[in-house]
Amino acid sequence: MKRKVQITAGIMLITFFVLVAVCAPIFAPHNPNTTNLAMKNAAPCMEYPFGCDQLGRCELSRLMYGARYSLGLSIPVLFALAVTALFFGCYSCYKGGIFSEIIRLLCDILMAFPVLVIAMALVTSFDSPTACIIIAISISMLAWFLRMVRSYAKTECGKEYIEAAQISGASGLRIVFRHLIPNVLPQFVVYFTTGIASVIISISSFAFLGVGLVQGTAEWGAMLNDARNSIYTNPSLIIYPGICLVICCAGFNLLGEGLRDAIGKEDETNAS
Amino acid sequence: MFTKGNLGRKLLKRLLNFVIVVWGVVTLSFCLQVFTGTDPAEMIVRKNNLFATEEQIQAVRTELGLDAPFHERYLDYIKGVFHGDLGTAITNRKPVIQNIMEALPVTCIIIIMAMVWIMLFTTLVAVFSVIRKNGIFDNAARLFCIIGICVPSFWLALILLSVFAVKIPVFSVIADGSIKSLILPSVSMAVPVICIATRVLRASILNELKSDYVVYAKARGFSNTQIIYGEVLRNALPAAITLFAQYCAALFGTSALVENVFSIEGLGSYLIKSCEGMDIYGISGAILVCAVLFVFFNTVADILSAVICPAYRGERI
Fold first, then answer.
1. Which of A33, A241, A257, B99 is deepest in the core (most CB within 10 A)?
2. Any idea what DSSP says for residue A38?
3. How far apart are CA B189 and CA B153, in angstroms?
4. ipTM for this prediction
């Protein structure tokens, strides 16, 4: 019962944010970048439901457009990473030997670099801020994904059905695709959903530090950074983007949580 | 040392792994210096002289050894790292290692304080939750943790700052380095981690409760609380130690955010400053320190768990 509530709540929150992100141009009451200095730090009113920021931009519209960056970047990138990690993780684990060792060491090396640090290092090397964010996330998340897939695959590889498949003459690739990946998938989907939440936070923290996105972009982290200057004059500007971030991440975490219970694996020790 | 057989071999394997990973980390940070789009020699010259000629730049390039062949620069870099020489910062022309050494102590103090909060609260909350499983406290803690995981540390820092430094001026807005001024930063770093760690520890204690020795202890008439404090916690320790070490290492990576909010001149701020000044030596130095600390903590945690709890043979994957 409880897990149903969690999954439903998670899916509803995610759908809500995806809808907002997709339909932002239709629903947003104002252009997120139009400044109206007369309405500087305005209190919430009928025209501006959430008030205005320090440059008189509509806070609600900016929040709606902010969802685009967080979701639009994290979901496609992570999806591509997940497919790569599933294949290489399972295959290397099944094959074992030197290939597997190299992947393990590569993961260890890449995991040593925190994602924030990678992003800051790459800023000097790339002209396009979006490319820098995507590459930083890919590098660090791929290592974590690979590691999780490999730990799941390792347990699966020891089971009898793999042996049975080998005896019946299935090729290595066939075992990986038809037997290993379907059995690893449920656990990995759980990790994947919580991974999205952490990437959303990462992207905002890049924006908060001014790494990547252009100054003044309507992104939750960047908005928090702008709001710092008005911490005395208009503290509510600090509240809204943060709450959006928390609720959006909570959606993905709740979904992951519910799914974890649903597949009946209490492997939280691994999911750190 | 090797009479213990399995343990000795495990340690040796772990150390070998450590060396290889550190080598990889050093290589990557060297690659960052080489393949980045900026030319440090040009940066240095242009910083002092807007109308620098190509000859001047070339002279600095030779001075820095930038025109040497690739493998020589690589060997030089590795030699330098061994002697603690990470190059000279472009921004203030001081050795990078000196800049880092000046910045590191504050960061270390914050992280140590954060770790104290983390270890204290995680253990307490996890144990209480397990003792009264599915009670009010357990459910409240679980809800709090689910929300807490989603809270970005920099937002929490901003909220704490606006509440406890602006609205109710208990703390100062800018941290001056005293212990009191570092309370808010360390708390905002600790809370998200506490939420994750509590859940993991709770799960691992619950898992431990299923084992045979707990049944035996119950049969002998010990209470649940006695068993948890006396035996289960000790056996859940390796998982907790690995976990805490991992978070401690990860905190070095995220400290930049909180340091930025509270204007603390720590390692993270140094990294940000280097990025803004396109100081490639500073960046790669700071990154190297972060990464080596990360690997170091993880290795120490693994070895500690193996030594403390012989039953722990968690094969690394």
1. A241
2. G
3. 6
4. 0.85
